[in-house]
Fold this sequence. Notes:
By secondary structure, this protein is of the alpha/beta class.
Amino acid sequence: MASEATPRINAHYLEQFTNQxxxxxxxxxxxxxETATLDASGSITIHLNRESHLTVNNAAEIIGKVQxxxxxxxxxxxxxxxxxxxxxxxxxxxxxxxxxEIFYEGGGxx
Length: 110
């Protein structure tokens, strides 16, 4: 069974992935009821689901769908705790877009 590719992105790539499922790692800046603000080389509004348990100032990985307004609707959220090398996370994003053929079947973005 094939699974849907979830390209790793940060705020700079949101427009290129509208209406697609993506994977984002960033720092939780704020929680506002059913939304959160994530810093992933830029601010991203995240629409949380009931299973989302994030903590302000912790790193988190969001798997979600980019909305037309460039916010992201969470499908799955994982709290990575307080220690994260964000420069390394951005380097992974950069590498996956620079060398698509290594990371994604067919080498396309979707």
